[in-house]
Amino acid sequence: MIGAAQFALCAFGGAQDVINIASAVSVTDAIGGVNAEAGLEFRNDGTIYQYTLSDGVGYSFLGTWCTPGASAVNYYMKSTVTAGSLSTDPSAGAVIAMSSTRLWKRNRTIAGTATGTITFYVYSDSGGTNQLDTKAGIVLTATK
């Protein structure tokens, strides 16, 4: 890792891509009467969205994890759950290609609160040896 703004050589022309997942933040969804769902979606256009079911399956823009966005498909991510659990974890500890949009989610279908704490990693290679950025302590909380 190189600091606050991470840089990686783009596979398609030698230009510098900026990799920075700092805008990934904890998400809480609290609602009564229906299921609660809180999530983070990393899109293959380089953007990050917050997801909450109480917003009527709403997505809110949080920021950009890869600039230019078109380069996002050239990168890989991994997540590790450090506390609690997730309802949806597209990585489940494995390095996955970001050629598709990925949603990490925690839901709650009965009264109470469910949480999952995640660490995200971004890599330039499918083997996960060249780490470009990381962010720990992201908490997804669903309260019904």
Textual characterization of the structure:
This protein has a 5-stranded mixed β-sheet with strand order 3-12-11-8-9, with no helix packed on it. A 4-stranded antiparallel β-sheet has the order 6-5-4-10, with no helix packed on it. A 3-stranded antiparallel β-sheet has the order 1-2-7, with no helix packed on it. With 144 residues, the protein is mainly β. Strand 4 and strand 5 form a beta hairpin. The chain has one domain. It is 0% helix and 53% strand. It is built from no helices and 12 strands.
Widest sheet: strand ordering: 3-12-11-8-9
User: Taking all residues together, what is the mean pLDDT?
Assistant: 87
Task: State the helix count.
Answer: 0
Q: Span between N and C termini?
A: 38 Å
β-strand percent reads over 45%
State the helical fraction: under 10%
Short key terms for the protein model shown above:
mainly beta; four-stranded antiparallel beta sheet; disordered N terminus; about 55% strand; about 140 residues; five-stranded mixed beta sheet
Helices, strands, pairings?
Layout: E1 6-9, E2 16-19, E3 27-30, E4 36-42, E5 47-52, E6 58-64, E7 66-67, E8 76-84, E9 96-97, E10 102-108, E11 113-123, E12 131-143
Parallel strand pairs: 3-12
Antiparallel strand pairs: 1-2, 2-7, 4-5, 4-10, 5-6, 8-9, 8-11, 11-12
In short:
By secondary structure, the protein is mainly β.
